[in-house]
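Supplementary Methods. Inverse-folding protocol.

Structures were first reduced to a discrete structure-token string of length 584. This string, shown here, constituted the complete conditioning input.
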């Protein structure tokens, strides 16, 4: 026996209590708004009904019929919890096949509060299947699905209250209010999108103008480069031509000076030889004898500290004495070692007293002073610095400045006027050449920068090109974050400290349908015992170009939200993608 019942979303009725070997859902079908048909659906009652149960069912059917007659809404009839898109799979007069195709069951087992299908598709309106899902129609708002375990759990999940049809929970239909609020949000988003899209069109036009300017500039630089290359080669020839006579004149001057220096050195050497002869000739007899040569220990040849008679004779050429003429050969042998008697003797270095050196050797630990000793020494140094005059009083005797070396006295004389003219002409040619080379390098650098900028992917219409060479900052309680699009992302402590590289420009990383929604910056500063830092920049539509927030979802992986008009779409496309539709 079947009892005719119906259900309206506006008037929820509890299910008749039918006796059955299988649990029976309160309502296998629900009448929902949106269909031209008002045909009632049947609630199955088992054949084994007692008379009292039959009376109860009949009474409830009468009440339901009265409720349906008072309902003004047009309804689409389908099992509770089934979306309109799947209505064709639930035909009352045909056996039901589980949506996963695992089995086919009589239709009266749909929504009977007993799970027959492994995918839970036979119980869309009950909590019988752990893996089932319930469709909230939410007329006036957005339809949604909830896990079937939330059906009749006493908590209102669907804004139209349809998930709590048999729990007794007091739910209020909030779909219209939620829809109104969503409409306000969408309206505001539409206004932002509209203004942002207008700004985007301006950015696209400005990008086109910049592109034309860059291309014109590049063409101009290419022409300038050709002219500069020709100029550089011409000035190179001028420079080389001017440098040749300069080089020859300098070489002549240097040669003359070397010859003059040789003469000066020979004269000085001759004077030193004469002076040495007079110093060695102790008895002034006009000869330098073996005994006189032995008085100069620095002439020792066997390093025994003394000059023996044999050594002295060897220095004199095997004779006992030499005169002035013969002394020239002797002088060549001894002049490098000979010490003039008129030359001041340097004081011998002061040796460390044996007591102190022994003490130092015995106590190795005192070779490195303690921190207290260092501090005391620093304090003493500061005290001494405070009284500089006392230091001057205690200064050691002045050491005589050694006489200038011969090389200092033999400074090369200035160039003559003719050579100076040649040098000035060559230097002017060099200056002109170097200036033209710098100009050529500058042109090359400008061309490389423009070519690099042109090569960037700035979007389908170059709408992101205005971000190039710009930087945007966000200050938080601890850090200052800086985003320089197409360059790098960095982080710096707010109250001082070094900057940390959070990644350099990598690529666009958005989804296939629009890769320009995400920027990827990689290979930043390495984390301690971790990977290199990287940053993903999420771009959203906005009238302003600004960094909205930063976070670190994973260690050393940062997420930055960035608004820009460049990602704003046409308002109609945005509204249609955001607006849902009511399913009845």
């Amino acid at each position: 026996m079947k009892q005719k019942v119906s259900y309206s979303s506006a008037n929820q009725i509890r299910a008749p209590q039918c006796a059955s070997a299988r649990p029976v859902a309160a309502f296998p079908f629900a009448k929902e708004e949106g269909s031209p048909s008002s045909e009632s659906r049947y609630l199955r009652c088992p054949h084994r009904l007692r008379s009292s149960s039959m009376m109860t069912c009949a009474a409830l059917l009468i009440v339901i019929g009265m409720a349906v007659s008072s309902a003004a809404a047009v309804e689409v009839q389908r099992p509770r919890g089934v979306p309109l898109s799947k209505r064709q799979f639930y035909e009352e007069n045909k056996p039901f096949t589980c949506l996963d195709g695992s089995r086919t069951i009589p239709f009266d087992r749909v929504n009977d509060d007993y799970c027959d299908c492994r995918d839970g598709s036979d119980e869309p309106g009950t909590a019988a299947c752990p893996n089932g899902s319930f469709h909230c129609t939410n007329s006036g708002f957005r339809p949604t699905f909830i896990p079937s375990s939330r059906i009749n759990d006493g908590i209102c999940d669907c804004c139209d209250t349809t998930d709590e049809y048999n729990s007794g929970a007091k739910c209020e239909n909030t779909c219209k209010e939620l829809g109104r609020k969503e409409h306000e949000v969408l309206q505001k988003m539409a206004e932002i999108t509209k203004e942002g899209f207008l700004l985007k069109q301006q950015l696209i036009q400005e990008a086109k103008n910049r592109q034309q300017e860059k291309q014109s500039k590049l063409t101009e630089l290419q022409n300038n480069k050709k002219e500069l290359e020709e100029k550089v080669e011409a000035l190179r020839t001028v420079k080389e031509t001017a440098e040749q006579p300069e080089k020859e004149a300098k070489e002549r001057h240097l040669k003359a000076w070397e010859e003059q220096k040789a003469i000066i050195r020979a004269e000085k050497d001759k004077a030193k030889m004469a002076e040495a002869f007079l110093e060695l000739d102790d008895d002034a007899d006009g000869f330098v004898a073996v005994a006189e040569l032995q008085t100069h220990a620095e002439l020792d040849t066997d390093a025994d500290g003394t000059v023996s008679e044999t050594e002295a004779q060897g220095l004199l050429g095997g004779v006992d004495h030499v005169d002035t003429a013969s002394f020239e050969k002797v002088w060549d042998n001894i002049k490098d070692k000979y010490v003039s008697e008129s030359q001041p003797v340097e004081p011998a270095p002061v040796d460390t007293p044996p007591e102190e050196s022994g003490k130092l050797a015995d106590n190795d630990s005192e070779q490195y002073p303690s921190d207290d000793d260092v501090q005391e020494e620093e304090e003493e140094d500061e005290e001494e610095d405070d009284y500089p005059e006392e230091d001057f009083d205690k200064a050691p005797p002045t050491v005589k400045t050694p006489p200038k070396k011969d090389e200092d006295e033999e400074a090369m004389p200035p160039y003559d006027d003719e050579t100076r003219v040649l040098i000035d002409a060559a230097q002017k040619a060099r200056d002109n050449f170097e200036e033209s080379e710098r100009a050529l390098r500058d042109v090359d650098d400008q061309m490389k920068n423009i070519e690099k900028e042109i090569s960037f992917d700035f979007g389908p219409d170059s709408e992101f090109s205005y971000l190039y060479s710009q930087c945007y900052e966000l200050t938080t309680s601890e850090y200052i974050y800086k985003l320089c699009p197409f360059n790098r992302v960095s982080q710096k402590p707010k109250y001082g400290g070094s900057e940390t590289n959070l990644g350099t420009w990598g690529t666009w990383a958005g989804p296939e349908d629009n890769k320009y929604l995400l920027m990827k910056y990689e290979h930043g500063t390495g984390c301690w015992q971790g990977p290199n830092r990287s940053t993903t920049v999420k771009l959203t539509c906005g009238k302003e170009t600004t960094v909205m927030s930063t976070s670190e979802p994973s260690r050393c992986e940062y997420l930055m939200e960035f608004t820009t008009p460049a990602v704003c779409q046409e308002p109609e496309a945005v509204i249609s993608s955001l607006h849902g539709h009511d399913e009845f």
